[in-house]
Structure prediction request, 82 residues.
Amino acid sequence: MCLLEASIMRVPLLSTRVGISEDVLHPSQIFDPASWDFSLPSQDAIDHSYKRAAERDPRSIIIMYDSAFRQIHSQEPQRARG
Prediction:
């Protein structure tokens, strides 16, 4: 959650490959401890992370899950009522 909150607030971030970091952060914001090669994130990287975090807004996710569950439910065979 912290990655999402910080990204929405446009906080410059660096992270290792953990959890959802690669799904949200720009590749330049992923720190590789083996190389120790890093720099502060650019404005483009911060904007990228903001957009990716905004896509994970709970309202959007609820709509997406609701649609998926409706599709699954519509494909279930009708159960006999007894």
